[in-house]
Write a structure and sequence with these properties.
The protein is of the alpha/beta class. It has helices at 14-17, 20-27, 64-77, 95-101, 119-124, 141-152, 193-196, 200-218, 220-224; strands at 2-7, 32-37, 50-52, 60-62, 82-92, 106-110, 128-131, 185-186, 189-190. The structure holds S-adenosyl-L-homocysteine.
Length: 225
């Protein structure tokens, strides 16, 4: 998989993409992430990427030309499955969406700033708009980093057995059951006996029962589907 991110703050990705699973995925060649500085696609000497919003309202808008030039350039080199704009009013990211995107080949992710991007980019270039929740961030970078993490960990070979994505919350429409490690007892708080029983059938039943119980309590909406 190849991911191209368009941003005016490339450094914001340095931390998230140079540690842990995302780092390992890149080192293994399972994903290639390229960060593009939008200012490199400007033509004026001040490398201007924003302009006043028409209508006299307060705030700046990301200009159409640099974004168009950058996307055109990327598209001239390869085909993309999706050109994604990170947007608070986009489709809310969830596990099924991450699963679907993890099967794609090439993705562009555009990070907005200020009041957002010129609407004509959304109309003519963007094929998918994604939000990471109903709240407003100051830029699309943190949202794109969240999206990348949710996708990349699902690419086959990225996670080892010990962190298998299939047993995570939401994959089977349920949240995850509680987990424990050593010691068996801490301050008198005990690990449930069944988990130490060695009886695989009993353990599987317990996990399912716990997952259903938790889902009912914490995410009842999941049980409606
Ligand atoms: N004026 C816009 C918000 C702009 S926030 C509005 O009211 O809808 C600036 C940028 O941050 C956006 O262009 C978008 O790329 C990003 N952003 C903000 N909140 C986000 C969210 N919840 N999910 C994804 N991207 C978000």
């Amino acid at each position: 998989m190849r991911i191209d991110i368009i941003t005016i703050f490339p450094e914001m990705f340095e931390g998230p993409f140079s540690e842990s699973i995302i780092k390992r995925a890149q080192n293994k060649g399972l994903v290639e992430i390229n960060i593009h500085q939008l200012r490199d696609y400007t033509t004026d000497k001040h490398k201007k990427v924003d302009d006043y919003v028409f209508s006299g309202a307060a705030g700046m808008v990301m200009m159409i030309e640099p974004v168009a030039r950058c996307i055109d350039h990327l598209k001239s080199e390869r085909d993309y499955d999706e050109v994604i704009y990170m947007s608070p009013d986009g489709e809310i990211l969830d596990q099924p969406m991450a699963n679907t995107l993890s099967l794609k080949g090439n993705l562009i992710m555009l990070c907005g700033h200020y009041k957002g991007i010129d609407e004509r980019i959304r109309e003519h270039y963007i094929t998918k708009e994604i939000s990471i929740g109903n709240y407003v961030l100051s830029g699309g970078e943190l949202a794109a980093a969240v999206l990348v993490d949710s996708i990349v960990r699902l690419i086959p070979g990225v996670l080892g057995d010990e962190t298998s994505a299939l047993s995570d919350s939401f994959q089977d429409g349920l949240v995850s059951p509680p987990v424990y490690t050593r010691p068996r007892e801490f301050k008198g708080w005990k690990v449930p006996d069944v988990l130490l029983s060695g009886n695989e059938k009993l353990i599987a039943d317990w996990k399912l029962e716990q997952a259903i119980k938790r889902t009912k309590k914490r995410r009842p909406g999941l049980l409606d589907d």
